Amino acid sequence: MRFTTFRISLCLIIHCTFAQSNENLGGQFPTRIFLPKEYKGSIVTLCFVQDKTGKLFSGNNKGVSVFDGANWQFIRLPKGQAALWIDVDDQNNVYVGSQEEFGYISNDADTYKYTSLIPLLPDSIDGFGSIWEVANTKNGVYFRSSNYVFWYYDNEIKVLSKDAYPGKKFDVLCQAHGEVWLRKRDYGVGKMINDSLVIPKGGRFFEKVKINAIMALGEDILVATRRKGLFLIDEQGTRPFDNEIQDVLAEARIYHAVAHKEYIALATLTQGVFIINKKGQLIEHINKKRYGISSTTNSVFFDNQDGLWIATVQGIARVDFNDQFRVFRSIAGENMFINGILKKDSIYYFATTTGVYYSETKNFDNAKKIDGVNNPCEFIKKIEGTIYFDGNSGTYKINDNFEAEIVFGQA
Q1: Which CATH architecture is the domain 31-320 placed in?
Q2: Mind listing the pLDDT tens digit for each residue in 283-320?
Q3: Which pLDDT tens digit goes with each residue over 32-49?
Q4: What is the pLDDT of residues 178-219, one digit of tens each?
Q5: Which of these, 113, 167, 280, 310, could form a disulfide with 186 (CB 3.0-4.6 Å)?
Q6: What is the pTM for the complete model shown?
Q7: Torsions phi, psi for 332 (to 5 deg)
Q8: Inter-residue contact 96 to 66 (CB < 8 Å)
Q9: Domain map of the chain by residue range?
Q10: Residues in CB range of 229: below 8 A, 6 or more apart
Q11: What is the CATH class of 2-21+326-409?
């Protein structure tokens, strides 16, 4: 009884004090790829949102696909148009922008209904092209085409024409801090206040710079440009966002970006998805070579379980973005998972589903196996200078010769 209690107590100490690492340690995050026959849409996917019930909506070239975690449904738009962009409100209405069409999808007991908002437009609007972005804000829902922004609020639509503002066509519209931010060609990036476009200090920097995303980053605004990398707008104006891959992003051509907790995910047209932290450090690069997904990506989205959804020209991918679990390839070619990581002195230790490994670098690909244990190891912890880990057969410690010694249990 004393033995069992002591071992359980040690395991609890190891488990409760384990700290996850956000470093790039090699290997890949577990990934699932969905093909059109599964989500019932086109191979080219464009965007995602998630409602408050957890259902995920994906816009594609045929309409909208809905995933409840187990099964997919498909929602066709009035003329079979593409769902170019989507957003969701607090009542789980999903707003859709398409070609010469925009409206919303409502849900009653998993029965989806599409309602067009075109009947609310004035007769003076005779065609407007494609709706490229949709943004739900505290002041209503905005739909952007090149020549118009349609502002939907309280079952009415106000039309904002490009001709009412300096510059040329409307370019990109996004939500940040609950407000609408907009780029207008030959004018810059600004914030919509009612029906006025207010350009902040530094916003004119983007008058001739193509951008693809605007998002909140703390109290500031982060702007992702197509060919110049990342920039911040703050009270002082516009400045480059310091990061490790600014030149790489300029070459890869950012097409969409999103900030989530401590991370920024960047979808590119030529090099897949980059994930950096808010300090600008590279966390992961998701591309065809490492993950088997297309390197031409249209958008990224974090769900409520921190899963990263990626819209590509060859289907949908979901990456389990959780540093505690990564997939590696063992020498035998089998999949393995990493369950814990820590560093003692200058050595990194990795607890995995096939044993414990150590390396002089933080990249697992260079790791060697600790002798003495070949079964799954769940937790690893340094206690008073000694490395302990817990496996199927008991609790072990690692000696100075990188060998495992049983502490409790059976060897």
Answers
A1: 7 Propeller (2.130)
A2: 899 999 888 899 999 999 999 999 999 999 999 999 98
A3: 999 999 999 999 999 999
A4: 999 999 999 999 999 988 999 999 999 999 999 999 999 999
A5: 167
A6: 0.77
A7: -80, -5
A8: no
A9: 2-21+326-409, 31-320
A10: 240, 241, 243, 246, 247, 249, 250, 254
A11: mainly beta
